[in-house]
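Exercise 7.
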Amino acid sequence: MASMEHPVFSLSTKPDHRVRRYEHGSTYVEVKPSSDGLATVHDRDILIYCISQLMAAQNAGQPVSPVLHFRAHDLLKATNRMTNGQGYEALKAALERLAGTRISTNITTGGQEIFETFGIIERAKIVRETREGRMQEVEVKLSDWAFNAIKHQEVLTLHRDYFRLRKPLERRMYELARKHCGKKEEWKISLALLQKKCGSSSTEKEFRRLVSNIVQEDVRHQHMPDYSVTLDDGYMVIFRSRGSVPLPLFSMPQVAIGHLSPEAYHDARIVAQGWDVYYLEREWRDWITEAPRDADAAFIGFCKKWAERRGNP
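Solution. The predicted structure, written as tokens, is:
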């Protein structure tokens, strides 16, 4: 979900060596490329595939580890890529960019500012090659950042047709709609803010043209998964749900819990300063799997851990 909120991945199809920095209040996220350039939106397919494998194992009650082994052919097929020599070479290059891209951020917790830097993946290794040089088995070790998101189920399902979107901007727009619109009927965002969240370096005029082309194609072919997209004259981009967003595979029926006390909301605001406690309550009710003995205390504890992991919004 963090990689859907922030433009961590480059939209460029050419090597992108820009250092990106995003700030919100006193908190920042900085993304630094390696000599191979920033990891791209299409490189993110590998991360999505790894996450899906771990979530499936976790949901089945199997032990999970940040180290994964998989057949390169399976990944290429699942992400709608070519399985010829060109496809395998592209996969190698993507692994190099993912391992080389570094993310630095500061979070404030307990009155202390903590600086942290990490890679999208920690390392990747080709376990076996054929004589033709094609990868057969691959080993990937996810970063703690990615693995912790899986353990805490901070992930969202994506439509399978996401991998059929060839334009990087289309993919980024879908990610933002999936994150912010979700199962709601509609989500609006200004063109300027959409450009910022996409991480696009185009001029304002060019970005509007690119978005307009995507909107026109969606009107003709309805090719965007889960959401339709329109652009009004007031420079607002509007996403509307097609009613096809599935429940996450790992979702559980919501546990019946009574109303929380006013004191619980008060204490939650203290331990999770800046967060909307009613938003946190919805997240908590979706996350919890059994009714706690003390709902107020359980909710306050959840809010405290939430704020410790994410800092102030």
